[in-house]
Amino acid sequence: MSDYYFEIDKLCCGYGNEFRLKPVSFGLKQGDLAGIIGPNGSGKTTLLKGISGRLPLSSGSIRLNNQDIQNLKLRQRAQRVAVVSQFIDSAGISVEDYVLMGRLPYRENFQFFESNRDLTIARKYMRLTGIWPHRKKQLSQLSGGEQQLAAIAQALTQEPELLLMDEPTSHLDITHQVQVLNLIQRLNNELKLTVLMIIHDLNLAAEYCNHLIMMKDGQLYSQGTPSEVLAYDKIEEVYNTVVVTQNNPLSGKPAVFLVSEKILEEIKARYGGINRNQ
Ligand SMILES: Nc1ncnc2c1ncn2[C@@H]1O[C@H](COP(=O)(O)OP(=O)(O)OP(=O)(O)O)[C@@H](O)[C@H]1O
């Protein structure tokens, strides 16, 4: 029996000889809201694709609630793990029908129409994500951010135990970023939904996630609480960029500040460098 609700052990996957993850291992507790961070091309999406089954593993195991989920049939896996990817296939389908597709893994053989329960669940998540007013529109008529909300509503309609998300806030303005992350945080608190998401914004990652996984060059570089992972020296090594970190005065979570080249040169000329002990 593992202490972890979700655990990957020495997971390897990639694209032939082009790019391959070095073995990645980590565990999450039920109800963790975990973020995968790291620079462009460090392997975040590849890791998520390996976990979601979109890329075959060359080695390693994935366990959810003490069961190896690699060998589950697609339908069974989809009842337990939902994925929100960056790019949404917005074919000619209404928002409501798109969200209802989240119930497909639960359809019985020869059940051609959704049940009342399917409709109730889909409507609940359309309301929660705020796309309810758009439900009759074609998905292709929505903005990038609204499509992202529809994709999240579909994934939640799947009622998964584990929600995987590839940059769920990438197309959203700050109001909707915070709205979506607040919603995810609420579901995570109320339903004990375990969430693993790729998130580029280090400040949002620090504020919302209780566990961070930092990738560099196809391998796991650091993992732990935001305070452990978002130390200035780790960020500088992984992102090759000078940063200053301070705690958010309200939440106590680390906040990361970038420094322009011009200011850095002025500080070097005046003080010889950044005083990290201030
Ligand atoms: N289908 C593919 N075939 C071959 N190589 C690929 C493929 N998809 C991605 N790669 C390569 O794998 C590496 C890791 O890509 P990945 O998408 O996992 O990075 P990422 O950390 O998610 O980056 P980003 O932050 O830019 O989305 C990159 O060098 C990329 O060029």
Automatic annotation (TrEMBL):
What SMART domains does its record include? AAA
Domain ABC transporter, first and last residues per copy: 6-242
Superkingdom of the source species: Bacteria
Q: Name one GO molecular function term.
A: ATP hydrolysis activity
Give the matching InterPro entries.
AAA+_ATPase (IPR003593), ABC_transporter-like_ATP-bd (IPR003439), ABC_transporter-like_CS (IPR017871), P-loop_NTPase (IPR027417)
Q: List keywords of the entry alphabetically.
A: ATP-binding, Nucleotide-binding, Translocase, Transport
What exactly does this protein do? Part of the ABC transporter complex HmuTUV involved in hemin import. Responsible for energy coupling to the transport system.
What is the name of the protein in this document? ABC transporter ATP-binding protein
